[in-house]
Amino acid sequence: MQRSLLIKPMLNEDYPTISYGKGIYLYDDTGKKYLDGSSGAVTASIGHQVPEIIEAMVNQASKVSFAYRSQFTSKPAEQLAEKLNELVNGEEDYFSFFVNSGSEATETAMKIAIQYWQEKGDYRKQKILSRWMSYHGITIGALSMSGHVKRRERFVPLLAEYPSISAPYCYRCPLSQTTPSCQLACAFELETAINRIGAEHIAAFIAEPIVGASGAALVPPEGYYEKIADICERYNILFIADEVMTGLGRTGKRFGLDHWNVKPDIIALGKGMSAGYTPIAATLVSEKVMEPIINGSASIMSGHTYSANPQSAAISLAVLEYIEKQRLTEKAEEIGSYLFHKLQEVAKDVAIIGDIRGKGLLLGLEFVQDRKTKQPFEAKLALTDLIVKKARENGLLLYPAAAGKDGVQGDAVIIAPPFIITKEETDQLIRILKETLIEIEQDLR
Ligand code: PMP
Question: Which family does it belong to (predicted)?
Answer without folding.
Answer: Belongs to the class-III pyridoxal-phosphate-dependent aminotransferase family.
